[in-house]
Design goal:
The chain has three helices and ten strands; from the N terminus they run ααββββαββββββ. It has an eight-stranded antiparallel beta barrel with strand order 1-2-5-6-7-8-9-10. A hairpin with a 4-residue loop joins strand 8 and strand 9. By secondary structure, it is α+β, with helices and mostly antiparallel strands.
Length: about 190
């Protein structure tokens, strides 16, 4: 009986010293995996046109969100996020500042534009179904900049609208660039968390 009692006490003592959860996060692992997943671009198509001809041109976009404010975050969590943004905070209703670098492989045949361009601005995300996890949409506006082969800057206002699904990881996005050579672009939105 005493041996069984010692064994039970030994098991209880050893269980109290075990940790069921990790006390500290590995920040290096967290940020390294986040940067690698953010490096995966979204596929986009650009309008390549001049006065006589037009076509669609394949390109890549990256989404960088330096600042986000969530309207429906948990009261124990800060509504402000920077770069590393939880999808539940973002798609349950938020406003964010974005920077969007873009790269077009090959050359524009008709528009005479360079391969690199960018957009920056602000967008609002509104949940539609199941707190935005199943369906949400966004509206945004900002500034775009393109350069032609003579290094002349073509810039102006850009407007965007998007619909997201699958916990905010997939979507379809449309941009209209006011007074641009490549006025329209649309594509699939991929964002991995």
């Amino acid at each position: 009986m005493i041996k069984k009692l010692h064994l039970i006490v030994l098991i209880i003592v050893s269980c109290t010293s075990s940790l069921s959860q990790v006390k500290t996060n590995n920040e290096l692992l967290k940020w390294t995996t986040w940067i690698l997943t953010q490096a995966i671009p979204s596929v986009t198509y650009y309008e390549d046109r001049n006065e006589t001809d037009s076509r669609l041109k394949f390109g890549l976009q990256w989404q960088v969100i330096p600042l986000s404010y969530s309207f429906n975050s948990n009261k124990y969590v800060s509504p402000v996020s920077s770069f590393f943004i939880s999808p539940s905070k973002r798609f349950s209703g938020s406003a964010e500042i974005f920077f969007q670098p873009e790269f077009i492989p090959g050359n524009f045949k008709y528009a005479d534009l360079k391969k690199f361009m960018f957009k920056t601005g602000i967008r609002a995300i509104v949940p539609v179904f199941h707190k935005g996890e199943y369906l949400s949409f966004s509206l945004g506006a900002g500034y775009y900049q393109q350069k032609n082969s003579s290094n002349n800057i073509i810039d102006g206002l850009t407007y965007e609208a998007a619909v997201y699904s699958f916990y905010g990881m997939l979507g379809v996005k449309f941009n209209y660039n006011n007074k641009a050579v490549s006025r329209y672009n649309f594509g699939l939105y991929f964002k991995y968390y």
